[in-house]
Amino acid sequence: MKSAWKWPLRRRGVEQTRVEHKSGGYGFVALEAQGTANWTRRDYAALTREGYLRNPIVYRAVRLVAEATSAIPLLLYRGVEELDGHPLTDLLKMPNNRQSGAAFFEALYTTLLLAGNGYLELVGFADALELHLLRPERVSVETDGRGWPNALSYRSGGLKRQIGLTPDERRVADALHLTLFHPLDDHYGFAPLQAAATAMDIHNAASAWNKALIDNSARKRRLATEFRAHHLALPQGRPLMQTLFIDPGMLRHELALEEPVETPDGAGGFTIVWNLVATIWAQLEPVDPANESWAGRNASELTHRVTMRFREGVKQGMRFRKTARLFPILSVQDADETGRYLICRTREQSQ
Fold this sequence. Notes:
alpha+beta, six-stranded antiparallel barrel
């Protein structure tokens, strides 16, 4: 049905064409994320786990300080008179049934170094008093309406209780909160370990990397960049050999490099004496003759390939010794002509 309305901008005599959109194929989205360092959380549990429990330097540093300070004797004076046998000194010598005075204060100073906070609870009455340490990750500070701390909130599993920080008419406060100075917090202390957390993470990461390097290098595996399979061709047709990269951890076999010396035997002949040239570290690996290319020679003679750092004077006719095993050198080649490594093909022989 034709419309009676005359469109003012419509060109007469020209039919409207439908615009057709066609897709040339499927697209893709490339996502790229910049890697960021993975740092340990700055809380007591994480710092203790990554520092005190995993890092030997942190562990020893904390123990040195804690052991030295806990060995300092505590004395009680009234004026200039030293009091001996006072209930307070007796309590500090044996704070509870599980810890001696030295063990108690060593744990207290260790907690201060790791958390920046130390929480002590006084339990019992009269002559049956005990001191106990509270784990920092289970304690939070409660404040009054004016912002002053008045209690500790202790949580363990499903248990939650409050311990007063202010004394009453019966006795002193039930708890004591010790802190190391924190410039940005009114109620919690600053742990020395938190200031060293970045260096600690770097040390832990380096240790893990080195351990992984040792573990991976100890496996029997063929180098992925062996020169024999990596030849490119330039436009002029000249061969270009790729640079050989060898994991330093693969050079883990200690070998003695020996050369033959002819010594007259006094009867017109001579005997061969093997003199030690050097002791080297190299990679010693068995080879599969079926996969070994050796300039057209019979590869079935080969049994092992030795990869070593470049050294002048290594040549055919010399041999490697590994304890009682002997490996005469059949050929020597600078793999990528860079003067960094030598690859020696050898044949193991019995003595």
